[in-house]
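ok trying this again, last paste got cut off
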Amino acid sequence: MRKMIVPLALAILAAPALAGNLVGIADCNEDCGSTVVYVEGAPTRDGAGTTVDFDQKDKVFIPHVLPVLQGATVNIKNGDPFLHNVHVYSGKETVLNIALPFQGQVIQHTFTEPGTYEVLCDAHPEMSAYIVVLDNPHFATPNDNGAYEITGLPAGNYTVVVRNVKSDKIERSSVVVN
């Protein structure tokens, strides 16, 4: 099991940053592609009308972890010239299971419930990904070095969560935004 640490100084880096922005480095232990950083306790917002792209290319889901706002619609595309399948689970329950036999084919699915959804391709068992549905727009995926930025956060006291969706390792840290 990998250990992730949120530095207590999630603080805004040395140069003055804009109020309401969180800049930090998540210790992803070389697994930043499976990590999402999000803020708990921020004002909620419905993602209706928001669309996000999720592709299957070269037998890989892109991105591997897709955080989306609750109510957002995900455009799921087959970028390969062969059959793919999208099998979305919430726990053991199937949420969506549909074949995408043609390159360029796109289906849409709106995620209305917060949670973590595992995505598999039944045609290619090596393919897996995660869609993390959140109730507010204050989230980010860190880059390969763990760096992330969450913008537009209103003043207040919050909990910043760094979560590896594969191991379900979660680290929390309190932060005050002025």
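PB: full thing came through this time. Residues 1-18 have pLDDT under 50 and may be disordered.
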